[in-house]
Amino acid sequence: MALHRLTTITLGVPDVAATAAFYRDFGLVETEPATFATRDGGEQLRLAPAPRRRLLELGLGAHDADDLARISSALTRLGSEAVAGPTELRAVEPVTDTVVRVAVAPPIEAPVAATPATNRPGIVERHNARADGIERPEPVRPRKLGHVVLGSPDQAATQRFFTEGLGLKVSDEIAGIAAFLRCSTDHHNLLVQDAPVPYVHHTSWQVDDVDDVGRGAKAMLDADPSRHVWGLGRHYIGSNFFWYLRDPAGNFAEYYADMDVIDDDDTWAPTAIADLRALYAWGPPVPSSFLAPDDLAELTT
Ligand SMILES: [Fe+2]
Known about the structure:
The chain is 19% helix and 37% strand. It is globular and about 65 Å long.
């Protein structure tokens, strides 16, 4: 695959200051006003003023300039215009009007992590000590931006732009409703789902493990319980643990851990999921405001 990662997204929001405060609390580091970095992925979120919340720009990292040339030709074949320079290419996804910027970018170097000792029936790894996950003193700081979920009024056309034009691969689908696409070895980096209007359903940020999903959410909810949307649970599609919170603009922000990795395309068979597993494997009941955010009617008018 020519692409290998998400780089930086720009979210348009009506109140940049209030939304910035949320992402500071969420554990992102503000490197300059309204620009936020993760621990491993560098600057990955920018906030910009917009009359209503939307995804203004999506950044993807490519290996080299040849990749940009191939993507440019594929977009042209698809009828989309791409403006290509030596290290960067810019195109616009026509249905959602999202600017897509593909740049030659270094891969994310994740640290070598120690495996926390766990106790299970028949296997005792941790003797005479409390669990690592309850002893961590430091606040949760996301490792990287994992995925973005984009609602599109023409799901099939938006999916085609990203698969046939940009080269993302389909990992799984909810038949006729959504496609989980990857531009890396993570199960999904972009989910394109059917929606009455273009909007961001959620962004998702990787943390070390399920303890950090819980620790991160607890800190956010201690500060403001109204941020809660849905969690703790585990998805079937992608296998990740999740907890969703709402930012002041109405975008959901997910802490996730332990997502499926697809590093051998030949051994992964994409599946069309048509039952409740499309939403989750386990967790609290799905709130209706997760399926249709409270401001969706307002965004549609
Ligand atoms: Fe997600």
